[in-house]
From TrEMBL, chain A:
Record-level Gene Ontology MF annotations: guanyl-nucleotide exchange factor activity; translation initiation factor activity; translation initiation factor binding
SUPFAM superfamilies named in the record: ARM repeat, Nucleotide-diphospho-sugar transferases, Trimeric LpxA-like enzymes
High-level lineage: Eukaryota, Rhodophyta, Bangiophyceae, Galdieriales, Galdieriaceae
Family indicated by similarity: Belongs to the eIF-2B gamma/epsilon subunits family.
Disordered as annotated region, ranges: 488-509
Subcellular location: Cytoplasm, Cytosol
Domain W2: 507-674
Biased composition (Low complexity): 495-505
Predominant place of localization: cytoplasm
InterPro entries documented for this protein: ARM-type_fold (IPR016024), eIF2B_epsilon (IPR051956), LbH_EIF2B3/5 (IPR056764), Nucleotide-diphossugar_trans (IPR029044), Trimer_LpxA-like_sf (IPR011004), W2_domain (IPR003307), W2_eIF2B_epsilon (IPR044123)
Subunit structure: Component of the translation initiation factor 2B (eIF2B) complex which is a heterodecamer of two sets of five different subunits: alpha, beta, gamma, delta and epsilon. Subunits alpha, beta and delta comprise a regulatory subcomplex and subunits epsilon and gamma comprise a catalytic subcomplex. Within the complex, the hexameric regulatory complex resides at the center, with the two heterodimeric catalytic subcomplexes bound on opposite sides.
Keyword terms: Cytoplasm, Initiation factor, Protein biosynthesis
Keyword Cytoplasm: yes
Protein name according to UniProt: Translation initiation factor eIF2B subunit epsilon
From TrEMBL, chain B:
GO molecular function (one): translation initiation factor activity
Name of the molecule in the record: Translation initiation factor eIF2B subunit gamma
Entry GO terms, CC: cytosol; eukaryotic translation initiation factor 2B complex
InterPro entries noted in UniProt: eIF2B_gamma, LbH_EIF2B3/5, NTP_transferase_dom, Nucleotide-diphossugar_trans
Assembly behavior: Component of the translation initiation factor 2B (eIF2B) complex which is a heterodecamer of two sets of five different subunits: alpha, beta, gamma, delta and epsilon. Subunits alpha, beta and delta comprise a regulatory subcomplex and subunits epsilon and gamma comprise a catalytic subcomplex. Within the complex, the hexameric regulatory complex resides at the center, with the two heterodimeric catalytic subcomplexes bound on opposite sides.
KW Protein biosynthesis (keyword) present: yes
Location of this chain's protein in the cell: Cytoplasm, Cytosol
Signal peptide: none
Length: 676, 471
């Protein structure tokens, strides 16, 4: 653990996540061999910027982490750059989350960094010089070894919004990436001196640049439930004062005026970065000065960047904020405003392109109109096509003439669509919950990729995912929920827990696992183990069997319900239930961390009541009880309630729960204000 | 200056009628002087807290003189019936005779002061509710135990410019007292109970939390609303509340509606500060409702509109209720003298000349063994006495070879020969007999300390119960 050397030998290492492990930018990144690190920003790939920025920070060695499938493409591409840097690839098709990659790195003696290193999270785009930050980090480390991580935060949130609370010496004591909810600042009296202050920053951009000590790898090795990088910070800040006094995290707030940094996680941030670059916000790096540009750009007022080799018709109009690629051909009367055009793009006569990004080698025939959209490589848009706002046309799609694409549509090649469906099965792709094939025009070479706004999508919107990898996890849990729910309808409650089989693990194994969990908890119930012990046992099982906590919940909750009796009069029953759940609530809380789980509880309990009429009158009582025991949060109940109201406004359950939800909503309003 | 300035004492009785007309400063100051001063035991056994001497002038002088100097033409002193006689006596008889006041009043018409008694034993907010009908406009609340020498015009100006609902004044407390062993009242428990935890946006000093640390369970939850509108906030513990508030008139209406609020400091101010966004939301709802209903014209938003000239930048503030803090400049001394420790600090500040109206004796008039003194009239001083950093009241008698160091001695005190007193507070009419050696002692009024007493850190009061100190 104490291999810390001051690092003055200059062997500064960087670890770069080249792959997003998720599908926020998919399409256009649907191709197996195309990864998000290759996204062009003003016609230069993201990874080139990242590597160049690392070179600037005097990084001599860089480890690139990616999926096995994109390794080849990436390594070929990187070789062409001829960088003065040792590049290593660490690839695997086994990883599900970033934490796995980190753990693998830790186990690789040849690659494992021995001194402080720079960690670049997926999609980080930055143009400022990290050398200063690294230097500051090292000075801090020399004074006190506990400063293990320095995180950089931009002052304006773009895609990864987060709030932090920071002590005067820069230590982060609270980090929250949820856009909703309040920020709880802990340890006011004990952590701070009387005269010091706590600074609270909200709406910061977590730009995904960390300077880490090797101790971080140890932390990941020891806590193998850390899924993504930010889990580390969360683990520290939620761990109470004991943790906060140990290894410390420094929050570096970037200057708002000179440091340009952002994370590309979705289309919005991709467009933001592209046009930010065009607008020269990332000065000193600009389109015409960036060293990797093979194209010779001429910077004109506007700003416009016109390459030396391109064909512009006399009557064409190139508007403000435009970058044209090499060999671009703009025909008569075509208008290009506020757009980025890649290399070898042919823009036919009378085309109109506005606020869009077009990658290389596409052909736009005559009278095509493109507005606020992304056109990927090798696309052909035939005469009179209209691409409306917010559309994405995937690579190599041929669009017939006179096609009118509706707003926010996604076009991909059909074979890619099926490919991506496979990927989904393999739990690689997660964001696209349902992809519906639909023919546009007559040619069958492409399909409409449509993301239905189902629960998953909404969730992704509402949660600011600091690390996209998290979602895979959630998806998995949802998979289980779906599978189980399907069976619950048909099965009796006693047997249902064992029938569920999921695609992700062999049915036999899972069955055994569930049986084991059931036995363990049954024993705990019968022998009246203290809840803490039960939690420990279940946790051990969870880790040993490598299953998700929501799965455990789905086993133990039915067992708990079975223990409830309805004999005797109402007050006896309620009293009995209260004591029972007060006792076991700790276990439920532990395994019910996510809103989906909470909703599952509600749903399961509803169906349970539907089957057993004697339980009916206690429906709302148990919900309240679970709320009082902090198992269910008010948001979950309210959300679930509203969903139910939508689907069936006159059900008995809705009526029963109505008053309670009303009360909740009122209380929520007042409490959210009063605890300011 | 206002055209209806009141010149004679009679008009003070008719103050409510006269202030309906416009005034130079359209803020009505209210001085709360009804405190019992339980934490100043045993000094307050017989003396009234607001009249305890600070640099040989009653504490109330500080508030009144500050108001008068800031250009207020009227003020109200709120007290309780049991203290009414003493307070009125001071306000009507003695205050106008003070040298400084007389000096000022030669050029400017005097400030009309009204003394008003409210029901004994009620909270400050209750008292405010009782006198609400006498308050014609936006108002200023200050506590008589605040000792500060500051021109309030700046504060009022800021309040007006920001069109605030509430502006409160904070001062930055320096490093905590180094744990001097001879500092008697600074038990850590007591100081922490007095701490305020503040949450302020550093740019415009808008305040979002002002709560006593005793009410906070070591963690603070900051709601989404606040985070959304303020990208940067600072949480501090060493900014103390001065108990000097400038309030909009509609706050009285709020008080009338929320009968449960009974204390200004403990309930009203935290409520306003904490619920700014919520109240704004509520106001908008009321505004909508009252548009349809002319009857309900007493609501908050209409309250803010009573001022004729609406600020031009009104639109820049999306929310109606806004609380701001003003930080006292660091060169201005401010303390509330509500504990013995701070009472001493205030007097020490007087001796150091940190408070403008307090003048120490000229060096020339002092004898060889005397340093930094504030001495009242008619002091009879024995031979070979040494006085250092003392405040000594009127008509005191100090015997021979007496050594006083850092003491506060009130009026008519007799100190016998050969006494050595260090950091003591001796209340009026007390008699300290010969050869006493007292350190860090507090002596209530009209006590007699027998000869040859040696004591350290004790308080001599009527009852001999030691627990009353913090009772």
């Amino acid at each position: 653990m104490n291999h810390y050397s001051s690092g003055d030998d200059g062997a500064l290492k960087a670890v770069l996540f080249a792959d997003f492990f998720s599908g926020q930018l998919r399409p256009p990144c649907t191709d197996e061999t195309f990864c998000e690190a290759l996204l062009p920003i003003a016609n230069v790939c993201l990874i080139q910027y990242q590597l160049e920025a690392l070179l600037l920070a005097q990084v001599k060695e860089c480890i690139i982490i990616c999926r096995e499938s994109v390794k080849e493409t990436l390594s070929k591409f990187v070789e062409t750059l001829k960088l003065d840097m040792n590049l290593h690839f660490l690839a695997s098709s086994q990883w599900l989350v970033a934490g796995d990659a980190i753990r693998e790195l830790d186990s690789r003696g040849d690659l494992r960094p021995q001194s402080d290193f720079i960690l670049i999270l997926p999609g980080a785009f930055f143009t400022f010089n990290l050398a200063e930050v690294v230097k500051a980090h090292r000075t801090r480390r020399e004074k006190n070894k506990n400063w293990v991580v320095t995180c950089c935060f931009g002052q304006r949130s773009i895609s990864c919004s987060c709030d932090i609370a920071r002590l005067e010496d820069g230590q982060i004591i609270q980090y929250s990436s949820a856009r909703k909810g309040k920020l709880v600042v802990p340890g006011i009296m004990n952590m701070t001196d009387y005269c010091s202050r706590i600074e609270i920053f909200s709406n910061l951009e977590d730009c995904g640049i960390d300077i880490c000590a090797p101790e971080l790898l140890v932390e990941f090795r020891e806590n193998f439930d850390y899924d993504n990088i930010r889990d580390f910070i969360r683990g520290k800040t939620d761990g109470g004062e004991g943790e906060l006094l140990g290894n410390r995290i420094y929050g570096h707030i970037l200057s708002a005026s000179t440091d340009f940094a952002c994370r590309l996680t979705n289309m919005e941030s991709y467009f933001f970065v592209c046009f930010g670059f065009v607008h020269r916000w990332s000065y000193p790096w600009t389109v015409e000065q960036f060293p990797f540009h093979t194209t010779n750009y001429e910077y004109r007022r506007g700003p416009k960047y016109i390459p030396s080799v391109c064909t512009l018709a006399r009557s064409s109009h190139i508007g403000r904020c435009t970058v044209l690629g090499e060999n671009t051909c703009v025909d008569e009367n075509a208008v290009v405003i506020h757009s980025i055009i890649g290399d070898n793009v042919k823009i036919g006569p009378n085309c109109h392109i506005r606020d869009s990004i077009i990658w290389s080698n596409s052909i736009l025939k005559s009278r095509v109109s493109v507005c606020q959209s992304l056109i990927a490589d090798g696309v052909v848009l035939d005469d009179d096509c209209v691409v409306s706002k917010g559309s994405i046309v995937g690579p190599s799609v041929l669009v017939d003439s006179k096609t009118h694409m509706p707003k926010n549509s996604r076009l991909v090649r059909s074979n890619l669509l099926s490919l991506s469906n496979e990927m989904e099965d393999l739990n690689i792709d997660s964001s696209v919950a349902v992809s519906r094939e639909k023919q546009v025009g007559s040619a069958s070479s492409y399909s409409l990729w449509q993301e239905t706004l189902d629960e998953t999508a909404q969730q992704q919107d509402s949660e600011s995912s600091v690390d996209e990898l998290e979602q895979i996890d959630r998806k998995e849990s949802e998979d289980i929920a779906v599978v189980e729910n399907r069976e619950e309808v048909s099965a009796t409650p006693d047997s249902l827990s064992f029938k569920s089989s999921s695609s992700s693990s062999p049915p036999m194994e899972r069955k055994v696992a569930l049986q084991e969990i059931k036995d363990t908890f049954q024993r705990a119930l019968e022998e009246q183990h203290p809840p803490e012990t039960a939690v420990l046992e279940l946790n051990a099982l969870k880790l040993a069997l490598d299953i998700h906590s929501s799965l455990i919940l789905r086993v133990i909750f039915p067992l708990l319900l079975d223990k409830l009796g309805v004999q005797g009069n109402t007050s006896q029953v309620t009293q009995q239930w209260i004591t029972f759940f007060r006792y076991w609530s700790g276990v439920l809380i532990k395994f019910c961390p996510h809103s989906l789980d909470g909703k599952w509880i509600l749903k399961y309990w509803k169906e349970y009541c539907e089957r057993r009429t004697s339980y009916q009158k206690y429906f709302s009582f148990l919900v309240q009880l679970l709320y009082d025991c902090d198992v269910l949060s008010e948001e979950w109940i309210v959300e679930w309630y509203l969903e139910q109201v939508k689907s069936n406004p006159h059900s008995v359950w809705i009526q029963q729960l109505g008053t309670f939800v009303e009360w909740l909503q009122e209380a929520e309003e007042t409490s959210s204000e009063s605890e300011a | 200056m206002s055209n209806n300035a009141t010149n004679n004492a009679n008009t003070t009785k008719r103050i409510t009628t006269s202030c309906a007309v416009g005034h130079y400063l359209d803020f009505y100051p209210i001085v709360f002087a009804g405190g019992t001063g339980s934490r100043l035991h045993p000094l307050t056994d017989e003396l009234i807290k607001a009249l305890l001497p600070v640099g040989n002038k009653p504490a109330l002088f500080s508030s009144l003189y500050m108001l008068e100097r800031s250009g207020f033409t009227q003020a109200m002193v709120v007290t309780v019936p049991s203290q009414l006689a003493a307070i009125s006596n001071y306000v009507y008889e003695q205050y106008p005779l003070d040298e400084l006041v007389q000096k000022r009043r030669t050029s400017v018409s005097p400030m009309a002061i009204k003394v008003h008694a409210v029901t004994e034993g009620i909270g400050t907010a209750d008292a405010l509710r009782e006198i609400a009908n006498y308050i014609p406009s936006d108002f200023l609340i200050l506590s008589s135990d605040l000792i500060v020498d500051w021109d309030l015009v700046g504060l009022l100006e800021q309040h007006r410019i920001r069109d605030a609902s509430l502006t409160l004044v904070l001062y930055e407390d320096g490093k905590p007292q180094e744990k001097q062993p001879n500092l008697k009242y600074s038990s850590s428990h007591q100081t922490s109970a007095l701490e305020d935890v503040t949450l302020i946006s550093p740019g415009d000093h808008r305040i979002f939390m002002l709560e006593s640390s005793a009410d906070i369970e070591d963690q603070v939850a900051i709601s989404r609303n606040i985070l959304q509108h303020n990208s940067r906030l600072v949480l501090r513990r060493n900014w103390r509340d001065c108990h000097l508030y400038v309030c909009s008139h509609w706050i009285l209406e709020l008080l009338r509606r929320n009968v449960a609020i009974s204390s200004i400091k403990a309930e009203l101010i935290p409520y306003l500060v904490r619920r700014q966004y919520h109240l704004s939301k509520q106001c908008r709802v009321w505004q909508k409702l009252s548009k349809g209903n002319e009857q309900d014209s007493l609501d908050i938003p209409l309250g803010t509109e009573y001022r004729l000239e609406k600020p031009i930048h009104w639109i820049h503030f999306p929310d109606i209720v806004r609380c701001y803090a003003m930080l006292l400049p660091s060169n201005i001394f401010s303390r509330r003298m509500h504990t013995l420790e701070w009472y001493e600090q205030v007097n020490a500040a007087c001796l150091k000349g940190w408070i403008g109206w307090c003048t120490t004796e000229d060096k020339a008039s002092l004898k060889k063994n005397h340093h930094r003194l504030i001495i009242g009239q008619g002091l009879s001083l024995g031979d070979q006495s040494e006085l250092k950093e003392c405040v000594i009241g009127d008509h005191c008698h100090i015997g021979h070879r007496v050594k006083l160091n850092g003491c506060i001695v009130m009026d008519h005190v007799m100190i016998g020969d050969d006494c050595h007193l260090q950091n003591c507070i001796i209340s009026s009419n007390s008699h300290i007999m010969e050869r006493c050696k007292l350190k860090q002692c507090t002596c209530a009024a009209s006590m007699t300390i027998p000869a040859d007493t040696t004591a350290k850190g004790e308080s001599f009061g009527q009852s001999h119960d030691a627990d009353f100190l913090f009772g």
